[in-house]
Design brief:
It is a single chain. The chain has 13 helices and eleven strands. It is of the alpha/beta class. The strands form three sheets. It has a five-stranded mixed β-sheet. The chain has a three-stranded mixed β-sheet with strand order 5-11-10. Helix 5 packs parallel to helix 11. It is globular, with a radius of gyration of 19 Å. This is Capsule biosynthesis protein CapG.
């Protein structure tokens, strides 16, 4: 089984990219704030973490608007550089919408049926093998039900995903078919979330660990066939909007169809720059395999924290990867 990694990256400081972006105006400034495009100089450590902890990966597909880090060795045999224009319809371009970029990745030429989607702030912090992401040909995932809590504009996107799921699937039937996958010891205390949603006949939402997602490419093809209108509408949006859906919809389809193997709930974690003590602790963890170090609103002492973060990465991954010149 060949497993590819797909990672998206943008250089928010690229003058040409900024000039193009400024030609358009997002309808929702909060969902498209500059921190969503901010590159804080840690991407080379992403490659170092992959090379050290997932040397078995088949290919790495790096998706960009066209710009590349100056340190990147484009000749690396495992690296495939993909521009938006290489796989997205011209009617969707230019795009500054991460939802549109991710919803179309199944169109990338040569991409394996089994692939793992990363953001550029998802790092592998411990050794992994193929079974951490796929088992018996199926994606590993946490099928935990949990209500959608409306606390930010992004919640609308999650709500849109769940509405579509309830259109296509029957929660009670899925519970009967996949009971031991939905209530599974690997989820630990997260099983309580699913238990508390049982009184409702429809899906209220899902627990969404903000870490890597393992996908079957065929799932994207199927969902596009079933819900082309809203996927096309999302792809046409230059920036993220509250009417969008996102790639989690594909996860939810896989869950409802039983196309997954239960994943440990502590497989990964998300920490933000506003909780830097947790960031530091994550570097010392011997169990957590995927860590998302997320930018955030109103980060105090940003420059100081970034220097500390780079220092942590240098200590953990001091050796250049083969993806660096």
């Amino acid at each position: 089984m060949k497993i590819d990694f797909v990672v998206t990256w943008v250089d928010g400081n690229d003058p040409k990219w900024l000039e193009e972006k400024n030609k358009y105006s997002p309808t929702d400034e909060i969902m498209n704030t500059d921190i969503r495009y901010r590159d804080y100089g840690t991407f080379k450590y992403w490659f170092r973490s992959i090379e050290e902890n997932a040397p078995w990966v088949n290919k790495i597909y790096l998706i960009t608007e066209g710009h590349l880090p100056e340190w990147l060795d484009k000749e690396n045999k495992k690296l495939v550089v993909v521009k938006h224009s290489d796989y997205m319809s011209s009617q969707y371009l230019p795009t500054f919408n991460s939802n549109a970029i991710e919803l179309n990745i199944h169109r990338i030429k040569g991409l394996s049926e089994h692939f793992v989607l990363f953001n550029d702030d998802f790092f592998l912090f411990n050794k992994t093998d193929k079974d951490d992401f796929f088992e018996n040909g199926l994606p590993k995932d946490c099928a935990v039900y949990s209500p959608v809590v409306p606390y930010r504009e992004f919640s609308n996107i999650v709500f849109n995903n769940v509405r579509i799921i309830n259109k296509h699937f029957n929660k009670k039937e899925n519970l009967k078919k996949n009971f031991l996958k939905i209530f599974n010891f690997r989820y630990g205390k997260q099983n309580l979330r699913t238990l508390l949603t049982l009184p409702w006949s429809n899906v209220l939402g899902y627990w969404n660990p903000h870490v890597t997602s393992s996908f079957l490419k065929s799932t994207f093809t199927e969902v596009w066939s079933e819900e082309r209108e809203i996927l096309n509408s999302t792809s046409l949006n230059k920036f993220r909007t509250t009417s969008d859906v996102n790639q989690w919809l594909m996860r939810y389809f896989q869950i409802e169809k039983g196309l997954y193997i239960p994943q440990k709930s502590n497989f990964g974690c998300k920490v933000t720059l506003n909780e830097f003590e947790r960031v530091e602790k994550s570097f010392k963890s011997k169990k957590t395999k995927v860590v998302c170090i997320n930018d955030d609103f109103g980060v105090e002492d940003y420059d100081i924290k970034m220097k500390k973060l780079i220092s942590l990465f240098e200590k953990k991954y001091p050796k250049k990867s083969s993806f660096e010149i």
